[in-house]
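Are you able to produce any protein sequence you like plus the matching backbone structure tokens because I've never seen that pairing?
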Amino acid sequence: MTEMLKISLPDGSVREMEPGSSPADVAAAIGPGLAKAALAARVNGEVRDIGRPFDGDAELALITARDEAEALELVRHDYAHVLAEAVQALWPGTQITFGPATDDGFYYDVMAPASRDPFSMDDLPAIEEKMREIIRADKPLRREVWSREDLIAKWKADGESFKAEWAAELPEGEELTVYWSGDDWLDMCRGPHLASTGKLDPQAFKLMRVAGAYWRGDQRNAQLTRIYGTGWLNKKQLDEHLTRLEEAAKRDHRKLGREMDLFHLQEEAHGSVFWHPHGYKVWRALEAYMRRAIDAAGYQEVKTPQVMDARQWEQSGHWGKYRENMFVIPDEVPNTEDEGPLVSDEAEWMALKPMNCPAHVLIFRQGIKSYRDLPLRLYENGCCHRNEPHGALHGLMRVRQFTQDDAHIFCREDQIVEEVRKFCELADRIYKDFGFTYQIKLALRPEQRYGSEEDWDKAEAELRQAVIDAGLATEEYGWEELPGEGAFYAPKLEWHLTDAIGRTWQVGTIQSDRVLPERLDASYVGEDGERHRPVMLHRAIFGSYERFIGILIEHFAGRLPVWLAPVQAVVATIVSDADGYAKDVVAKLEAAGIRVDSDLRNEKINYKVREHSLAKVPHLLVVGKREAEEGTVAVRTLGVEHQKVMSLEDAITMLTAAATPPDLAQA
């Protein structure tokens, strides 16, 4: 008698199945509803095709649309394959390369046949229609294992030079799999996939744009066309996503930054921001706020050099692990002659700092430190440079020059949990002052790392305990642990802010580090009179001023809280007879600490209102002949339909309260 397979289900039950059966058979045995709903399966922790037979006894969990994250990953992967199939069906001779799922959709890199120009936005409607045709055909998606030789031969015969090259370079011994769509199209893929194209909703995807891409990301290789799409489980999800994109476009910090005259970027300084007076007022308000917060929390502010010798970066480990992202500088006078190289072979090398931590260790090492001196909290608004690729730069969100609200806490082993707990509470207060909710995550050890397993065990446990002690390791705060996501020298806690339209932004971090103090020989004298290594906590709350300002602009759609607004009020005249009174109003507002401008132009008041509304000025104080005679102002608040007439004294009281930063208002 054939021995039955034992399949353990999440509810603890065990089903006996015939050898050769699959998760689809288990779903059918449970009921027709589940058989229809099951999209894929997790077999012994591995996500697999629903129809792939079991290898033996197994633990099984069926994946349905209710398992949204995994279901979306699956459907987006399938949409990418359907996209590639559609392009090749419409334009035979198109070569395909890779097509992964993304955070909100998918893309596929393709090369158009020689008979036509590269694909463009004009081609997307036809591709979409062909994709829907393939989906409605409900073509089975079937997995096969091929030998390397057969697969390479197949790709070469089909003229798929990119696929053939990739197949030839895959590691020896790796199982090479293809997926058929019906019996007439296949792609090389590890999977998993849905059972058929008909499991996709033909109305739940949209092709969004095309862009240039290089084969394997190398600009020396052939140029391809990357076709981007967004894909969802149903049309309702797609419509909600497109609405979010529309709202995000309205909130784009680059657009609002121009309208509000906050900053600009230009090619002469790739990835570096030119802050205009209004933008720098926002920066200074944030900087003053953060200084008050760190002063109250017992930090000492420092300032460290922009450029340090390469040997320092070698000792810290950054030269080996991070050099490709550093700007390096020869430590010699450059050649000024017409002939000869700019820099000699004998030049010593220095680097612009990509981070502040090694310099803070050097400050710690000045003088003898005692256990009584700890914890020592060093803070710096530290300007850093990182050599990001031009194509990766994005407004304020990803730049080459940025300023971190950076600090390092040097402490004893017995102080770690308490210091991290205090930081968690500080970050909580600050994020709530800006109106953000957040999730907190623990990023665990990556595959490539420094330090012993014992140190990593200890560091991860300490961060975990601190979050528990702060009362944040709960579902309310989205507490989650992320395997493999830590830095190469330390695990870290991450704060993910949720903005007004539901997007998340990873900003704050704290990392527990035992490696850098060892590498840079930092020590203190313990109670026993012996030298000991401090533990170094790397921490930031804004992350960088540039990116945090970009997030704030988009979160508030430019309507910054009054205390952050670069111009908190504008006094605008209706008639020139009120100019003198308007100047008096401005003077009194300035004396009260309000950031105020005047608008005395000979323009209609409706024009002035529109212009200052576009600039997102929170309050417009309109004055005419009557207001001048009565000592009043007509206050128009941004976003409020009706104006309110009040005495100048009441207006000053109202504006002063609104312009008070939240930490000072609470005090």
